[in-house]
Amino acid sequence: MCGFCYMHSSQIMEYIEDILNPKVVALDLDLFTTLIAQRSKDELWLVDFFAPWCGPCQQLAPEWRRVAKRLNGTARLGSVDCVEHQQLCSSQSVSGYPTIRAYPVGKTGSSMYSTYNGWFRNVQSLVGWAYQLLPSSVTIITKQNFRDKVLRSEDPWVVDFYAPCVVPAKHTCLTLKNSKDVPVA
After folding, report:
1. Is the pLDDT at 177 greater than 70, yes or no?
2. What is the pTM of this model?
3. Which H or E run contains 169?
4. pLDDT of residue 51
């Protein structure tokens, strides 16, 4: 039976694009050492440690590629096949699959990481988690400093008045959080 018979044309195009121009770096011990352990302090890396036989890992794979596309230029994504690279996964104390780790900005080495503990392993959840790991350029505005910071500023400002529990507002804030062109409050 044809592997593409049950795929929509957009899924086939996405698959071909991923093959020709992969956004996720397949990491082995040498690449992990070079790209993760010896990375610069201004790089954010997200790494998926997986096993090919693992059902949840198989479900995560296409989402992981979509996350890489969404975060292109913001974070780099890698994956480690723990069946093929057992020594690397063992040295990193990976014992369950999938294990998703972030090697954050401002840190170096492979021992400083955050593990994704979210229930959902979809694009929106993983991208939101990645944005939370980035340094923020958001200024907290209070009624005491609003006039001086915003109203008297010669620069344009984007001010988001929101309640933290409102998901669309939180998403907007996370999206604007890393804006370097416009001050965000």
Report:
1. no
2. 0.71
3. helix 167-176
4. 98
Are both 97 and 60 inside the same structural domain? yes
Contact (CB, 8 A) for 77 and 25:
yes
Residues 129 and 143 in one domain: no
Catalytic residue positions? 54, 57
Q: Do residue 84 and residue 52 come from a single domain?
A: yes
Q: What angle do CA 48, 99, 112 make, to 5 degrees?
A: 85
- Sheet (strand 45-50) strand order: 24-26, 76-81, 45-50, 99-103, 114-115
pLDDT of 148-172, one tens digit each?
888 888 888 888 877 766 655 555 5
Query: Comparing 108 with 163, which gets the higher pLDDT?
Result: 108
Could you list the residue range(s) of the whole structural domain that residue 126 is in?
Answer: 10-133
CA dihedral in degrees (18, 133, 135, 177; nearest 10)? Answer: 70
pLDDT at 130: 95
**Alpha carbons 89 and 32: distance in angstroms, whole number:** 11
Do 96 and 55 have their domain in common? yes
Q: Token match 């956004």: residue?
A: 23
Looking at the 3D structure of the chain, how many domains does it have? 2
Strands 24-26 and 76-81: parallel
* Spacing of C-alpha 35 from chain mean position: 16
User: How much is the CA Rg of the chain, to the nearest whole Å?
Assistant: 19
Spatial distance between the Cα atoms of 68 and 79, rounded to a whole number of angstroms: 11
**Do residues 98 and 150 both lie within one domain?**
no
